[in-house]
Amino acid sequence: MKFFPGCMIHNRFPGIERSLFFVFEKLGVEIFPLKGSSCCPAPSISKSVSVELWKEIGIRNVRLAKNETIMTACNGCYTSLHEISQIFNEGDIRHVVEYLHSEIGIERIKKSVEKRLPVRLAVHYGCHFFRPSKHKGFESPERPKMLDELVNAIGAESIDYKYKFMCCGGGGGVRAGATEVSHDLLERKMDAIAEKDVDAIVVMCPLCLNQFDVGQSELNELRGKDYRIPAVHYVQLLAVAMGMDVSLTGIERHSVIEQNFIEKLVRGES
């Protein structure tokens, strides 16, 4: 199996990649970097410029795997490569969260945990993972449970909140091209999350992670908010639960860091 990092993980959140390789080594699943890969390319932006170019770049990435499964940890990369693989009828594209849930399974995840993480988490799925739903074949995109179950498997608690399944405003060119709209969406979600007693926000996409992480500081400065809720990718938490040192996951390098949350991760519970 080959890991496709995409742009955001390599450039902004390398701890996600480090955590993912740690997790799969612990699970006894061989995974290797997809050498020579480029941007997926981004589904919403690239297709609006040239569908043919989007196809050509995408199928090049798929063919680099030489018929091996491609694993991603990004919703946008997953959607783009998955759609391209269907168009050309080539390749097998998997998202790490979907793979962990369906192929590894909740019970095996539980057995692989070295320390439970006693934290309360607000789960955010992101838009691109389930949609377009007719091509993905997953559970209902309106009320998914996959990530919630994986969160609970590591001893954490998934906390429901208003606007849980709403867009965070980070993708589709919204953050870059319609900043006010992006901030409006994020503020609505953050206000709903802030009403709950949560330790962090857990995502499955680096673009969503960037929006929650950097966006909080922007809202604090521009709109007088006082958000201080860390955001993390699920594989970072899973790696910690499986025994990886928190300092290696990259969580402490995020923009929003709360020492109480870090201490809970370090301490864990048996």
Give the CATH level 1 class of the largest domain.
Alpha Beta
State the CATH topology of the largest domain: Rossmann fold
Note poorly predicted spans.
Answer: none
Q: In what range is the share of β-strand residues?
A: 5-15%
Helical content (DSSP H or I, runs of 4+): 40-55%
Helical stretch tally: 15
- The tally of strands reads 8
Judged by helices, strands and strand pairing, the structural class is: alpha/beta
Average per-residue pLDDT, rounded, comes to: 93
Whole-angstrom Rg: 18 Å
Describe the structure.
- This protein is α/β, with parallel strands linked by helices and 270 residues long.
- It folds into two domains: 2-100; 107-267, Rossmann fold.
- It has helices at residues 6-11, 14-27, 43-49, 51-64, 75-88, 96-104, 106-112, 133-136, 146-153, 174-177, 179-194, 206-223, 234-241, 246-249, 259-267; strands at 2-4, 32-33, 70-72, 93-95, 120-123, 157-158, 200-203, 231-233.
- The strands form two sheets. It has a four-stranded parallel β-sheet with strand order 2-1-3-4. Strands 6-5-7-8 form a four-stranded parallel β-sheet, sandwiched between helices.
- Helix 6 packs across helix 9 (146-153).
- The model has no long low-confidence stretch (mean pLDDT 93).
